[in-house]
Specification:
alpha/beta, FAD/NAD(P)-binding domain, 3 domains, five-stranded parallel beta sheet, 24 strands, about 25% helix
Length: about 400
C-alpha cells in the first residue's frame, strides 16, 4: 500500500486530507496527517478576539473531528523532513515514510527578530493579535483603554492575511466609537509598505476609508527597533513614532521544521512552482497554504483555491502524468471595516481587485471593492462555512479556483 503523508493539520492540510480521501482508493493509498497536537485553531477569529466578538470557544475544535474515515491523525513533534529518503523524522527518532508528501506547515510570527519588540512592555503596552496569547492579552488591555495613541505596525511582508492590520484599525475605530472615547484615541497605521495595501486600486479605496475615519497613515516606515521603556518606535531612516499602545504585526517565517530540513528560502518558506504547487526541488513533494514562497496572499481563501488545483495535479502525478492544473494566485478576502460593514476583494497574480458583484454576476449578493452590510454578514458567516464546509472538503465549485472576470468591470 502506498502512503500519502500530509505534514500539517491546519486549514490547508485538513482540506487536502478530505479531498484526497474522496479521490484515492482506500485499498491502495493510506493517508496520514501529521501535527504536534489535536487542537485546530480558527485563525481568522483571532482578529475579533480583542474586541470581544469571539471568545476562545469559537476558535478551537479537535483536529480529529475533521479527519474523514480512512485518514489517520499522527500526533508528534516533527524534527525534519528527509526528502532523499522519502520520510519524516520525529523528535523521538521514529520515522514515517511516504510516497507523496504534502507540506502544509503554515507560518509563524517571530517578534523576537525585531530589536526591542519583545523587551520592556511586551504583553503590557505592545501586543500581537496573530496568536491566541497575544490576542487575549490585547483584549484585556483594550477593555480598560480610555485614551491615547494606538499604533498598528506592519513590520514587513509577507504576513498571514495581509488585510488584517487594516481590519484591526477599522474595528478599533468602531470599538472606541461605541464606547464613547473615540475622540480621545489617536489611531495610526505605520506600515513598511509605501501605501495602505499591496494592490493599487484596492489601496486607493482603503486609503479613502482610512482618511474618512480619522486614522493617520505613516507609509514606508521600516521598523528598526522598539524602545519599550519609552514607548517609541524607530525606523531605519531615523523617523520615530510614539505610542501608548502598540499593536504589532511582526515578522513572519515558515515552520522551524522547514528550516531544520534545509528545504526553505531565507524566510523558511518552501520554493514552490507558482502554478503546479510542486516543490521546486522534489518531484513527490507538494506545498500549499502559508508554507509556500509564492507571491500570493497567505490567507485561507488562497489555501482553498490551491487545494482544488493541487488535488487535480497530485492525482495526475500519481497516474504518471504531468500536472495539468494551474494556480493563478486567486485570492478572495472580506475586509471588515467596522460599524457592520465590510469590503470584498477578488484578485490574482496579474489582476487587481475590481468592482462588481460576487459570486453571481450582476446579482451578488456581495459587492466588490465597495462597503456593504451584506459583505459584513458574509465575513461573519464564513466561520460556519469554515467548520462545516471547507475543512470537510465540500464541493464549492461555484467559486472556482481560478479568478473569473464575470460580474466585474474595469
Amino acid at each position: 500500500m502506498k502512503k500519502l503523508v500530509i505534514l500539517g493539520g491546519g486549514t490547508a492540510g485538513t482540506m487536502m486530507a478530505a479531498k484526497m480521501r474522496q479521490q484515492l482508493d482506500p485499498w491502495s493509498w493510506r493517508i496520514q496527517v501529521v501535527d504536534r497536537d489535536n487542537r485546530h485553531l480558527y485563525q481568522p477569529g483571532l482578529l475579533f478576539l480583542p474586541f470581544g466578538t469571539y471568545t476562545h470557544r469559537h476558535l478551537h475544535k479537535p483536529r480529529s473531528r475533521f479527519m474523514p474515515d480512512g485518514v489517520e491523525l499522527v500526533l508528534g513533534e516533527v524534527d525534519r523532513i528527509e526528502p532523499e529518503e522519502n520520510r519524516i523524522r520525529f523528535a523521538d527518532g521514529t520515522r514515517l515514510p511516504y510516497d507523496q508528501l504534502i507540506v502544509a506547515t503554515g507560518s509563524r510570527i517571530v517578534p523576537e527578530e525585531t530589536e526591542g519588540l519583545t523587551g520592556e512592555g511586551w504583553g503590557r503596552s505592545a501586543f500581537d493579535f496573530y496568536t491566541v496569547e497575544g490576542a487575549t492579552a490585547l483584549r484585556d488591555t483594550l477593555a480598560g483603554f480610555r485614551g491615547g495613541r494606538v499604533v498598528v505596525n506592519l513590520v514587513d511582508m509577507p504576513v498571514k492575511c495581509p488585510v488584517a492590520p487594516l481590519e484591526f484599525l477599522f474595528l478599533a475605530d468602531a470599538f472606541f466609537t461605541e464606547r464613547g472615547v473615540r475622540d480621545d484615541v489617536e489611531l495610526v497605521y505605520a506600515t513598511s509598505l509605501d501605501a495602505a495595501f499591496t494592490k493599487k486600486r484596492c489601496s486607493d479605496a482603503l486609503t479613502g476609508l482610512i482618511e474618512s475615519r480619522g486614522i493617520e497613515l505613516a507609509p514606508s516606515f521600516m521598523l528598526e527597533k522598539v524602545d519599550g521603556e519609552n514607548r517609541v518606535m524607530h525606523s531605519y531612516d531615523d523617523r520615530t513614532i510614539d505610542y501608548d499602545l502598540l499593536v504589532s504585526v511582526p515578522l513572519h517565517r515558515g515552520s522551524p521544521v522547514i528550516a531544520r530540513s534545509g528545504l526553505g528560502d531565507e524566510l523558511d518558506f518552501v520554493p514552490t512552482d507558482r502554478h503546479t504547487l510542486r516543490a521546486e526541488a522534489w518531484e513527490n513533494v507538494w506545498v500549499l497554504g502559508d508554507a509556500t514562497n509564492l507571491p500570493s496572499s497567505k490567507a485561507g481563501s488562497v489555501a482553498h483555491f490551491q487545494a482544488e488545483v493541487l488535488t487535480e495535479n497530485l492525482l495526475a502525478a500519481i497516474s504518471g502524468l504531468e500536472p495539468p492544473a494551474a494556480f493563478d494566485g486567486h485570492a478572495n478576502c472580506f475586509i471588515e471595516t467596522g460599524h457592520g460593514k465590510a469590503i470584498l476583494i477578488d484578485f490574482n497574480y496579474d489582476t487587481e481587485p475590481l468592482p462588481g458583484r460576487f459570486p453571481v454576476p450582476g446579482v451578488g449578493p456581495f459587492t466588490l471593492l465597495e462597503e456593504s452590510e451584506a459583505n459584513h454578514w458574509g465575513k461573519m458567516a464564513f466561520r460556519w462555512a469554515y467548520w462545516n464546509l471547507l475543512l470537510k472538503g465540500a464541493d464549492l465549485s461555484s467559486i472556482g479556483p481560478s479568478m473569473s472576470m464575470a460580474g466585474k468591470w474595469s
